[in-house]
């Protein structure tokens, strides 16, 4: 499936609107930094470094981007400031590609894996349950049958919110009594999906960063429970992060990647922040692909992440 087959004009407009604050902040600063200068010199690079760091791209990723720009300037001998945006676009795009973030339609599931089991992790308040609801809607929209599992049994609000999303989207939600064993809920959810020949299972988990040992034990129990039903499950452990929290999102990613094997990311709430650079930094630092980004409150505002579209939107293409 080609890029333009699944990235519609409507999605592009949503992406452009969602990243508007980041674009205005970052590239407004760059424009001011290069005003009156004809070439990309040390002063411009110093200013660029400061802009990227303060835009939550992260120190390590910023240094790598600056190094890439320096090498490009040295190789091309003479680079004027009007070319800087193009160079940044190329280097950031290449950086995302290097970190396994490819232009893939993540809503198109691999054949032969049924049900496809997604375990969703993340702290409370990042938009985890809302992301699950929107993801269920997106999967159903493209023709997949979906089952949700309410394994965050420590918070009544979390279960109720997931049930509301299930009713809204029109998909079943498997739940038990409050305080039940989350692993038991996960087991029941996958068992129900198998019995009903569902295509996708999405399981919500407790969003508490109590301590790493308890978190690790809990997630390990859930993993083992779903494996009893489908030996290859979970297919995906999706970490949801709030993009508007900037550096705090980096810390959450650090804690969860230590606690369990996270293999994909969803970064939410990008529409309300100028911290969209966090997408670049987290992808680079943790070498985990960003699969989904949240760009608003609507059902359609959760998008399968597309590297080319993201970079082009930031740079006004």
Structure description:
The protein is α/β, with parallel strands linked by helices and 317 residues long. It has 13 helices and eight strands. It has helices at residues 3-6, 9-18, 20-34, 42-54, 59-76, 84-98, 128-141, 156-169, 182-195, 212-227, 247-259, 278-286, 307-314; strands at 116-121, 146-150, 173-174, 200-204, 236-242, 264-268, 290-294, 302-304. The chain has an eight-stranded mixed beta sheet with strand order 3-2-4-1-5-6-7-8, sandwiched between helices. Helix 8 (156-169) links the parallel strand 2 and strand 3. Helix 9 (182-195) packs parallel to helix 10. The longest helix is centred in the N-terminal third of the chain and has 18 residues, at 59-76. Residues 1-6 have low confidence and may be disordered.
Keywords:
317 residues; alpha/beta; 8-stranded mixed β-sheet; 13 helices; 8 strands; 51% helix; 12% strand; elongated; disordered N terminus
């Amino acid at each position: 499936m080609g890029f333009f087959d699944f990235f519609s004009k409507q999605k592009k407009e949503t992406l452009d609107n969602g990243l508007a604050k980041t674009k205005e902040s970052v590239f407004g600063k760059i424009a001011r930094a290069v005003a009156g200068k004809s070439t990309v010199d040390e002063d411009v690079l110093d200013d660029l470094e400061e802009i990227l760091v303060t835009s939550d791209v992260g120190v390590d990723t910023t240094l790598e981007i600056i190094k890439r720009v320096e090498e490009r300037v040295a190789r091309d001998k003479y680079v004027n400031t009007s070319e800087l945006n193009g160079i940044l676009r190329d280097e950031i795009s290449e950086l995302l590609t290097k970190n396994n973030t490819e232009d893939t339609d993540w809503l198109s599931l691999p054949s032969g894996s049924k049900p496809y089991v997604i375990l969703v992790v993340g702290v409370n308040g990042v938009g985890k349950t809302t992301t699950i609801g929107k993801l269920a809607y997106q999967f159903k929209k493209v023709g997949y049958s979906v089952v949700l599992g309410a394994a965050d049994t420590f918070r009544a609000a979390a279960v109720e919110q997931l049930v509301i999303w299930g009713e809204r989207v029109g998909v079943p939600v498997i739940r038990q009594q409050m305080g039940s064993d989350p692993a038991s809920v996960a087991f029941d959810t996958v068992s129900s999906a198998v019995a009903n020949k569902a295509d996708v299972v999405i399981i919500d988990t407790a969003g508490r960063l109590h301590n790493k040992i308890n978190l690790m034990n809990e997630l390990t129990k859930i993993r083992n429970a779903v494996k009893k039903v489908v030996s290859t499950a979970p297919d995906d452990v999706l970490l949801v992060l709030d993009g508007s929290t900037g550096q705090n999102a980096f810390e959450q990613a650090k804690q969860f990647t230590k606690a369990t094997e996270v293999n994909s990311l969803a970064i939410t709430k990008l529409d309300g922040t100028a911290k969209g650079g966090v997408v670049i930094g987290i992808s680079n630092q943790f070498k985990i692909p960003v699969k989904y980004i949240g760009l608003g409150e609507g059902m359609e505002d959760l998008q399968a992440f597309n590297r080319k579209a993201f970079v082009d939107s930031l740079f006004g293409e």
